[in-house]
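Late entry, glutamic acid complex.
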Amino acid sequence: MSEMNPFQIAQHQLDMAAKKLGLDEATHELLRWPMREFRFTLPVRMDNGKVKVFQGYRVQYNDARGPNKGGIRWHPDETIDTVRALAAWMTWKTAVADLPLGGGKGGVTCNPKEMSDGEKERLARAWMRAAARELGVHRDVPAPDVYTTPQIMAWMMDEYEHIVGHSHPGVITGKPLALGGSQGRHDATARGGVYCVREACKVKSIDPSKCTYAIQGFGNAGQYAATLHREILGGGKLVAVSDSSGGVINRGGIDPERVVAHKLETGKVAGFPGTEPITNEALLELDVDVLYPSALEGVITGKNAKNIKCKISCELANGPTTPEADDILFGKGVMVLPDFLANSGGVTVSYFEQVQNTYNYYWSRDDVNQQLDRKITDAFTAVHKMQQQAKTHMRLAAYMVSVTRVAEACKLRGWV
Ligand code: GLU
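Prediction complete; structure with ligand written out below:
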């Protein structure tokens, strides 16, 4: 089972939900595959004068509930199967948050850490030129993801508007505020995750202000989780953080603001004063109340799941836990807040961004956060209710909620 690629994992998870729901064969088969997928060959002039050819992707998984929606990842390990899996998870994510959207994902196989700003801009524009005819507010709306930023969204929006010849800010979300971005989009993924932890603590009768927590992965979501955990839950002790180059631990507590500042200054968490080094693997196995896997897929597997000691695992990353690990964690009583519920705050505020772009009227940050809290709390409640009814783990319960909603839309359209 540990040999499965991310897309096979996504299909396997759906299969489990289909079985539990007694889904008819045609609907099940329809939901196992992307509706459309595109692969682009992108020649880009690099700073040394030579042309480098990149592979880019966009997968439109299912748009029965509305236009496809989902981020674009730039990563050296990106493949069509990672993008397919992420597009499937976006479909379940917009459904669990009850947004009138479908699911999509894009990617480019590249290493942005080795690229200049000029090279990134040319790659962003090349991807948009290739994808433009498949995108738009009524078709498919991309957003940021791993290693893509508001600046990259701005270049892509600009390229799109040059192609169509008019203003169309809603073609992409996660834009800078000055170009039609939404208040609160920058920390929405982490904020939604912390709201889920708050709700999970209620049902588990844990005092959230006394929780210890650790964060694996220190990009956008991980950094904001560090500070928002304490702000929203009224306390808590951060004991360890890590990024792709290693981690740091201090059982007495790490100051969230200072470790974020250190990361922004040096590009790493390693070397943060007053801490000891810890590996990513060891961090996952720490005896903390809340663990935030916030990096990439496939880090909690059949091999290490038996050593996981947290009470709640809040998956800010997409796909961090394999199906084998899910069963082990469920058996151990760990409450896993599954990725497409726990990190749905990002796409929820992306949806608010689109709504604001369409109205050309912009909300305050408090309004955004309040609406987000309502959406996330409703999503958690629906999944938790299903979990109690179906007596299964939170991931399967979340699938059951989402698959029911997407299947209903497919049936009403007469597709199955
Ligand atoms: N990339 C984020 C995700 O995986 C956000 C997607 C969006 O805002 O459309 O949920």
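Residues 365-390 form the longest helix (26 residues). Will revisit in the morning.
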